[in-house]
Sequence to fold (710 residues):
Amino acid sequence: MLDRRTFLTGALSATLLAPALARARVSAASTVRVVVDGGCEDARAFARACGLSESAHQDAASLAATLEDMRETACVGLGRDSQVFVLTRLLASRGYRPVYEGRHELVAARTRHTLRGARDAVRTLATALADAGDAWPRWLATAAPRLAHAASLEQATARTVSGLAARGDGPGLLVSWCLLRA
Amino acid sequence: MKPRDALPPARVDAGALDAALEEWRAALGPQWVLSGKASGLARYRDDFAPDAAQSRAPHAALQPANLKQVQKVLEIARRRGVPLWPLATGRNLGYGGAAARQAGVVMLDLQRMNRVLEINEALGYALVEPGVSHLDLQRELTRRGSALTAAPPAAGWGSVLGNLLERGHGYTPRAEQFDNLCGLQLVLADGTVVETGLGARERERGKPRAVLPWRHGLPAASLFGQANFAVVTRLGLALTPRPAVLRAYRVSVAAEDDLRVLVERLRPLLLDGVVAPGGVIVNLLLDAALVTTRRRLGGDSGPLAAEARARLGAELGLGAWNYHGAFAGTADSVAGDAQALREALRGLAGARLEFEDGTGSAPGVALHAALARGVASTEAHAVLDWVGAGAHLDVDTSLPLRGDAALAAFRAHQALCDEHGLDYLAAFQLGPRDLRHRHLLVFARDDAQAGARVAKLYRALAAAADGRGEGVLRTHLDFMDDIAAQYAWSDQAWLRTCESLKDALDPGGLLAPGKSGLWPGRGGRKRD
Fold:
C-alpha cells in the first residue's frame, strides 16, 4: 500500500503515442503530455501502452509544477477522479479544453465505460472496450488520441461494459481524458 | 436551523446592465468581459454545490488586469447600479467555489492580477496580488532560491490572498493565515484606494514595507476578512525562514475515545510552545481516504461499520486518531521537544509516536510532513475519491482546547453521520487555546439526493454545534445567513454593527451582497 499518491508523467512524441494523432488536430511533430495515476495497475498499463517509463514518478507538488510549465499540444491520461478534477481546472487556466472524457467504473465485478467525445470515435472505442476484457487500458491508450478530433466534449456519449473486472488495486472509478490547447 | 428557500436573483435593470457591459468592454477590452452562453461563464459555478438545482448564474464576468481597471469597473458599476461579486481564484471549494451568493450579479474576477510584486528576503515578507496561488508563490520562491516559505493550506492551488481572507489555515508553526497578514490594499466601492498598514504613510505612498499588519489608529485589516466592505487588490504576507531542522512525526491512538486523553496530553505542550500550532489530529477515515476508497472496502453505501474501521486501521497502520505534527528549530531544540513529547505520552495505552524518515509510512504522514515544511500541492484532494467523483461540504467550528469538548463534538458528529448514512471524515487542528473541528461531508457530486442529504446533515451538525457552544468559523454560501444568525447575542449587536459599516462603506450595496450573511440597506435588501 502506497502512503501517498504518485503519478507517472512524460512528454511523448505524438507519433509514438498513436499514429492517429497525425490525422487529428495534433500534428505529428508535436508532443503530448501523458499523466497517469502511479498507484494502480490499470493506469500503469495505460502508461506502458503509451510508451511511458515506469520510473517517471512525480508527487502531486512536482506534477503541479510540471503542469504549470506545460507546453505540449495535448494532455491525455488515466487517473482518479480527484486528479482529473484538479488537472483539468489547472490546465483550463492555461487554455486547455476537454475534448474527451471517459469514466471507467467497477460495477458488479465488471468495468462499465461511459465515454464522451466525438461521436464516431467514442462509438469505435466503446466497441473495442467491450471486447477488451482486462486489457481495456491498453485499448484505451491506442484509441483515445483519436478523440482529439472532437471540437467539444458534448458531441456524443457511448456506454459499454468490459467482460472482466479492473484489477483489485484500483479505486473503483478511473477517469480518462484528452485536453487540447486552444 | 430551518432550510431556506433559494434566493431570488439580484435585481438589475436590463438596460442599465447592457449599458454597463458596453462601458466595461471599452474599459477592459471586449475579451475580458464575459457574457452570453458561449463566453466561459460556466466557470463561475460551485463545483461542489450540495444543491445543484439552485442557480447562481451570473449575468457576466469582468477580468481586470490592474488596480486602475478595478477602479474603473467600480465606477461603472456604481453609476449603473450593478452589483459585483469579487473573486480571487474561485477555489474555495467546500464553501462555494467560484460562485456568487445569488444569481444575477456580475463576477469581478481578479485572476489576471497574478503578480508576485515583491519578495523581501531580508525582512521575510511577500506582496502578492489576488490571482497568485500558493503553487505560484512557491514556484517564485523556488525560482529565486529563497530560504523563505509560506504556510499553504492542504489544497495549495487557491489564492494566497483569498485563503487568508477566508480564514484558511496552514500546517507550519505559523498556521493561522490571518496572523501572517501584513497590510492590505483595498478599493472601496467609491473607488478610493486604501492601505491598511504602513503603506498609508504619505512617505510610503502605497508602496509598503509589509512588516506590520497595523499602524497608528484603527487596526483595520481584520475588518476585511470574510467581508464585503471593499475589493482587496494586494496582500502583504509574512513569510518564515525554513528551519535548520524540521522533524515531522505522528502520534496515533488506538481507540476512538482516546481523542479526549490525546488532547489533554497535548494541551500543556501547546501552551508551553513545545508543540507548535499547525499540528492536526486526523481521524482514521480522513487519512485512509488519501489512499483507498469506500468502494474498495466493500458495499457502496452507508457509513463504514466500527469493526470495518478497526480492520482498515490495522491494515493501513493508522490509529483511530492520528496527530500529525512537526518540531522545527535546531538539532538540540528538536531533540528536546521530542523528548518532552515522549514524556507527555508516557503511560498512554495504545499511543504510538513515529517520526517521518522519508522511507514511507502510514497514509497522511508524508503529506503532513510536506505541509509542515510549507510545500504546496493538490494531493489532499485525493480524499474526494472516497465516494468516486466526490465533493465536500465543510463544517468548520471552534471549540475550547479540552479533551472532553473534542470527544463530545466527535461523538455528536459521528452519531449524526450514522443517522444520515454518511462516513465521518474529520480533523481537529490545534491552536494554542482552541480546537478547530473541520468535518468534511464527502458526497458524490453527480448525485442530487446525496447533495440534499448532506445539506440536511450540515444543518443538523451546525445546530448541534451551536447547542454545544461551538462557533462556526466558515461556511458555504448556502448557509451564510443561518450561521450569521447564530452570532445573535445582544439583539444581533455584531451583525447590526457590520451592517452599519457596510452601509457606510458601500452605500449602494455593490460589493458581494449577502457575503457572510451581510446584506446592504441594514440587511433589508436581502430579497429585493
The mean pLDDT of chain A is 81. The two ends of chain A are 39 Å apart (CA to CA).
